[in-house]
Structure formats: structure tokens, C-alpha cells
Amino acid sequence: MDEASLKTIGVVGAGVMGVGVAQCAARAGLDVVILDLDDAILERSRTEIRNQLRFQAMMGLGVAAADIAQIMARMRFETEVGALADAGFVVENIVEDWAHKRVVYEALDRVCGPRCAFAANTSAISITRIASATARPDRVMGMHFMNPVPMKDTVEVIRGFHTSQATLDLGIGFLRRMRMDAVVVNDSPGFVSNRVLMLTINEAIALVHEGVSTAADVDRIFESCFGHRMGPLATADLIGLDTILLSLEVLQESFGDPKFRPSVLLKKMVDAGLHGRKSGRGFFDYSTGADAPARH
Length: 296
Description:
single chain, 296 residues, Rossmann fold, N-(1-d-carboxylethyl)-l-norvaline Dehydrogenase, domain 2, eight-stranded mixed beta sheet
């Protein structure tokens, strides 16, 4: 595999993460095929990407207004997996659910050429497990992007049990094309970032549930005392509380350790549809554009 494999990139999943990866790849001059379930989802993603590029141009964030049409022209929005037949590298960004991921990787393995490599943009699921759904485990790696993708310049890259050095080199080359750095770690559910982050978020939620502190004050301690840009509960809202719950469930199942047991309050909020920024409300209220604490 060489960098010729990077001519056409597949992006599976047109949600928040997929939109971010797709626009960064297109900005880097790559042709991108974005795959999702239906045209309505894809049309929303097309509008979101155009709006984000316009914002970046307005704020001087590396995009010129005159280049937006050309960047958009590099992207194709498709609903049939066969559209990825010519892709040399595919980044998958679907929900954190093994049953869904397995179906997707089995389909990609059938459709994509034998030299195509897959990168799983997953928060917690083992890369080795994902690779087992394919006949090319040496060409499967993890690529854990952070949200929002265009604003982050470092990616956690995961080497699965069978991942070859050539695959890692290709993935790192892809990131470099987008002016991003890689930190390579070995495979373990949750990797480094979410083994630590999910426990922190879950414990912060428990403190709110127990009445030890408000959500706003929990985050203020992390921001003001430790110098974090964002507290754990605002981070949870940004990621999505439904994704936090799924990640904790994956970690609990994988390790069999009760320390990963999701907070009762987290489950209640997800059941209530309070998923964070994307739903307009989580631990904080985003319905008016403010970050005022929501009350539970």
C-alpha cells in the first residue's frame, strides 16, 4: 500500500464525526465518498459541511471563500455501499454498537478492493474485534478522532493485534495530508483516551446525582483549578450522553469490571432524550445558544 491509495477516501456515517472527517479530507485535496442510510441524512450533512466551511472562511480558519465550491465538488454523497468500490482508504464513523459495526465491516469487506484499508473511528470497541469481521485484519486500524474534528490537530491511532505497519503508515499519511498528528497506542477497549475519560465523566455524573455539586460547579473546578478547556460534563454533552452510555456499556462488557457501570442519572437522562448539544439539552441548556446548567 502506498499514498496512491489515498486518492479516494470513503467515509461511512454522515453524523457529526463523519461530517468532520469528510470536510477535512476534501480540504486536503482528496476525493471523498460519504455513505449513509438515506438521502435526507446526506442532504443534512451536505448543508452542515457547507455551513462549517463558510464559518471557517469567515473566521480565517484555513479556508478561503473562493475555495468552498471546489471543496464541496470533491465530495459525493451516496446511500449504496457499492459506491465505495474504488476507495483506497475507508474511515467508519457509525454508532458505538458492535452488532451494527459488524454488519458494516462485512459489507465493506465484500465491496472494497483487497488493498483497501479500513480505519474505525470508534470510542471504545476493540480494533481486533472489528478486524475479525473482515478477511483483511492486517488492513484494519483504529483512528479515534476528537470532536470537533476540524478543530483538533491530534488523533489517537490504534494498532490492532493484526494491524500491519504498512496500514499504520498509510493511516498516518492520511492524517498528515490533513495536517494532523498521530499518537499510536496498542489495542484495548477504550484505548487510552476513553479508558480514562469515561470513568471521569461517569464519576462527575455520580457527584451531580448524589447532590455533592451542581454540574456547573463540577466543570468550574476542572476548568479553573486544573486549567482544562472544558469540564467533564460539558465534554459529555459535546460527545453525546447516548454515546457516553454506549461507551461505558462496551467497557463494562469488555472488562467485566463494575467501575465502568453507568450512572443511574446518565441512563435516566438518555431515556429522557437529554443527549447534550445535539438534542439541545444535557447537563447544560443549548436551546438558546447559552451554556446555562440544566436542572435535574
